[in-house]
Write a structure and sequence with these properties.
Layout lengths: L3 E6 L4 H11 L5 E8 L3 H11 L3 E4 L5 H10 L5 E4 L1 H9 L5 E4 L7 H9 L3 E4 L2 H7 L1 H10 L2 E4 L2 H8 L14 E8 L17 H5 L8 H9 L1 H13 L7 E5 L5 E7 L4 E5 L5 H9 L13 H4 L13 H12 L3 H17 L7 H11 L9 H18 L6
Parallel strand pairs: 1-2, 1-5, 2-3, 3-4, 5-6, 6-7, 8-9
Antiparallel strand pairs: 8-10, 10-11
Helix pairs in contact: 2-3, 4-5, 5-6, 5-7, 6-11, 6-15, 10-15, 11-14, 15-16, 15-17, 16-17
Bound molecules: nicotinamide-adenine-dinucleotide (NAD) and magnesium ion (MG).
Nicotinamide-adenine-dinucleotide (NAD) binds next to helix 1, helix 6 and helix 10.
Length: 395
């Protein structure tokens, strides 16, 4: 069998590296077509040495000439492409079978959408792309005729628990409820009066998962669960009333599907993204992900609680956006991206994140998400609105 050709968008990130770790175990099944990075040229060079892709893409031109020279000097046949348009080219190239969408934020939308339109098998980690483009993205997947495999651990779990032969984007038969689990992040028990002084380092110290900075902050505010709620509505063609968020601090059950007959199916595993990545790559086959067996005795007990919307206002804001639909999720996501970046840059405090998103959402002009242009315009407008609020909340 000819190996599948894989493009990894966001190869130098946490998901990108975990994907390469799985691919490295199965060279007979997969070969790397393209690896992309925003500006980490050194890391990208190292990945090119190890995986010999046909193309490497660097979005930021700084460091590109040094990288091109290094590739040449080392006798690597990898060709370097520069700029955001090159992301689209390596996502939709006819040689490509599967595209791992692992860029962080709405910046990943154009190449991920291009992969869907081109009928690729899209492995979706980049939840923001789906949240922003919503039904337009799902429509692109249908038009393209490829497949959409959820990689976010919760959605991969839900997908695995769906009826046999289930295809993402269709309403699942016989299902009563989707139960979306979340750990509650590092501040589940923290005294709320001390949250104002939280540092980026504290917010990024997730108790169970090691991830990129943006999603780590989103996990602390639980905006991550909110984005995942919207993601689940879209992936599984389910209204907000059909999804429930449950706090499960151990991160062992990655989500559950409750059926009409009272059966509840769950997917369990160690908190390691190589599992959903391997499941997505090989589905419906199974391959070794290099993950050790879950030790239930060592885990001991699994606990559950209801989420607190007072403690996690970002979760409430996201559920409200899910209810409003249309362009509301695009506004929510853009405001969150601006606020989280400002928090990570120490320009605003932690509690300014929900405050800014709330104010942006109150001023949002919410039309239906009719076209990609409308979505991109909403994204730009929301970013401007959030940026304008930053000085008011300056740390
Ligand atoms: P990360 O910050 O570790 O990596 C992000 C990658 O995207 C890097 O390769 C970076 O070079 C690239 N990138 C950043 N900005 C870019 C831009 N403007 N244009 C092009 N490329 C850009 O992030 P991550 O933790 O790997 O997360 C990636 C995506 O996967 C996010 O959407 C996140 O929500 C989702 N996700 C991550 C995890 C996890 O465990 N890390 C779990 C579930 C879902
Ligand atoms: Mg997740």
């Amino acid at each position: 069998m000819k190996p599948d050709q894989i493009t990894i968008l966001g190869a130098t990130g946490s998901i990108g590296e975990s994907t390469l770790a799985v691919l490295a175990e199965h060279p007979e099944r997969y070969s790397v077509y393209a690896l992309t990075a925003h500006r980490q040229a050194d890391k990208l060079l190292d990945q090119c040495r190890r995986f010999r892709p046909r193309y490497a893409v660097l979005v930021d031109s700084t460091g590109a000439s040094t990288l091109a020279a290094a590739l040449k000097a080392e006798g690597l046949s990898t060709e370097l492409l520069v700029g955001a348009e090159a992301l689209v080219a390596v996502a939709e190239a006819p040689e490509v079978d599967q595209v791992m969408a692992a860029i962080v934020g709405a910046a990943g939308l154009p190449p991920t959408l291009a992969a869907a339109e081109a009928g690729k098998r899209v492995l979706l980690a980049n939840k923001e792309a789906l949240v922003v483009a919503g039904p337009l993205f799902m429509e692109a997947v249908r038009r393209g005729g490829g497949a959409l495999l959820p990689i976010d651990s919760e959605h991969n779990a839900l997908f695995q628990c769906m009826p046999p032969g289930y295809v993402a984007g269709q309403p699942p038969a016989g299902v009563r409820k989707l139960l979306l689990t979340g750990s509650g992040g590092p501040f589940r028990h923290r005294d709320p009066t001390t949250l104002g002084a939280v540092t980026p380092e504290e917010a990024c110290a997730h108790p169970n998962w090691s991830m990129g900075q943006k999603i780590s902050v989103d996990s602390a505010t639980m905006m991550n669960k909110g984005l995942e709620f919207i993601e689940a509505c879209l992936l599984f063609a389910t209204p907000p009333s059909g999804i429930e968020v449950v706090i499960h601090p151990e991160s062992v059950i990655h989500s559950l599907v409750a059926y009409e007959d009272g059966s509840v199916l769950a997917q369990l595993g160690p908190p390691d993204m190589r599992t959903p990545i391997a499941a997505g790559l090989s589905w419906p086959d199974r391959i070794d992900a290099g993950v050790s067996l879950l030790d239930l005795v060592a885990v001991g007990s699994l606990t559950f609680e209801a989420p607190s919307f007072e403690r996690f206002p970002c979760l409430a804001l996201a559920l409200a956006a899910a209810e409003r639909g249309g362009l509301a999720p695009a506004w929510l996501n853009a405001a969150n991206e601006v606020a989280v970046a400002a928090f990570l840059a120490r320009r605003i405090g932690y509690l300014a994140i929900p405050a800014i998103i709330d104010r942006v959402m109150k001023g949002a002009t919410l039309a239906p998400a009719e076209s990609l242009d409308a979505v991109l315009a909403a994204d730009r407008e929301a970013r401007r609105a959030a940026e304008a609020l930053l000085p008011i909340y300056a740390a």
